[in-house]
Amino acid sequence: MSSKRILALSSTTMALVSLLFALQAAAQSPLGDYNPVTDARLVNPEDGNWLSYRGNLEGWGYSPLEQIDASNIAELEPVWTFSTGVTGGHEAPPIVNDGVMFVTTPGNLVYALDAASGDLIWRYQHDLPESYIAFHRTNRGVALYGDKVYMATLDARVVALDAASGDKIWDVSVQDNSFGYYMTIAPLAIDGKIMVGTSGGELGIRGFVVALDAESGDELWRTYTVPGPGQPGNESWPGESWRTGGAAVWVPGHYDADLGLAYFGTGNPGPWIGDQRPGDNLYTNSVLALDVSDGAIRAHHQYHWNGSWDWDEVSTPILMPVERAGRRFDALVHPGRNGYLWTLERQANRIGFVDAEPYVYQDAFTGIDPETGRPSYDPEHKPTTGNSTAFCPSLWGGKDWPPAAYNPQTGLVYIPANENHCGVIEGREVTYMPGGAFTGARTQMTLREGSTHIGEIQAWDMNSGEEVWTQEFESHNWGGILTTAGNLIFSGGTSDRYFRAHDASDGEELWRFRTNSGIIGVPSSYAVDGRQYIAVQAGWGVDAAGMTARIDQQRGTRTFVPQGGVIWVFALPD
User: Fold this and answer.
1) Quick one: how far is CA 422 from the chain centroid?
2) Is 69 in the active site?
3) Can you tell me whether residue 495 is helix, strand or coil?
4) Assuming Cys at both sites, which of 182, 250, 424, 506 could form a disulfide with 134, CB separation 3.0 to 4.6 Å?
5) Bridge partners of residue 561, in order along the sequence
């Protein structure tokens, strides 16, 4: 046989062997047969998957899995970890589709991992410009839709990746980062659209929510959260102040499939001090109901008007049922940064006020109109230009962005709250400079005299409007909450680096595990081959670290929280 024929046979054999190995690897890989994420799956997710930011589009933060419960939680143990190789605040939840986990980190990295073993499938790193502008260099996670993975970026772009390979499909700019627009939000995906909002409320931006076509990245609609001339609400802004009005949107929206409405929370006005822009300043510090088909604002509720405290109300309300006086209705439940727990009623073209109760100490409001929900203010505690004004809670509010959760079995809402912290804002004149800070404020944090704790987890029965139990922590609490059908809640959030499980009915701590860093990541739960997992990212930073420093100043302490991102995954012994 000739040498050429031998070489030809060898090449053919090698090709066949390579093909065999490739087919075997594909069969073993969770991405060998990737299950596309459809509207139907997002609206009614399978129990073992965690397909969106809060597990379902109503924002419950609830897993129907019950393998892990109070009877066996003491056996919960770490089964794999994965170092992200990144420092800074890791805030994104692990998103899981049929055994494949997708996680983002600060700096706009995306990891696809085998959710059962932690093995790396692919990694994508967004190419950020050297001089990009972003006050909060974090990311809150991906959205899954069809066969793609979507991420919003710090340079105000949206990237679509092939879920199986991590290859970039499209990359679209939604605004000019040099003017202070950047994005930390996890997209909301539904109805063939990828919806994102912008950060930059401290940089003189004009907030918006934009919807992009999931396949092409083409812009389908854009809704500004600060109305321009000729739009309803523009009269609430003096002169040209609407152009730099803020109202950033940087926490994922929730979706009502029956009404076809997406709900988004909005942030503070710019500049911070209200007497520099007299008026209600719509739609800052509000919840907006947007028609997903065209982006039209169908309804809104403003939690506080002419905001002057930096109390962003970007946390999207939980969409849940509430029963009052024998009447059951579709509610929006929002633990506000302004220190009040809001119950609203959602309808096709209306958001109605039901009630609001303070859940932490608050001294800026003197009352809330029982018909409209409009607060009245104590002028002694509303910051003004040229003065230093004290108020409670501080600018970090009763609850910042970390999400609350709702458990339909217990009927309770769980709030990661912070109590006993107050603040001082000195108002200053400020001139807008593109890409520059536009707060007009100097801030200080104080602690209430005699206070022994700051962080809390509160459980509220929204049918009765009453608090059921509270767990207190000496540290502040920046831990988003996961609740499960196993009658448990999971969260981190404290500077002692513990990840904890509590009894969802009475709040008793049942389990704790100390991780490498503080946890400000949002936990999730999923199942692979019948085994339930609890997953969370550790990685301290951003505002949680800033608040730690301010508390240390007041207490005369030195708190060290190591940095470094690690994905922690827990399960019962196999």
Assistant:
1) 24
2) no
3) coil
4) 182
5) none
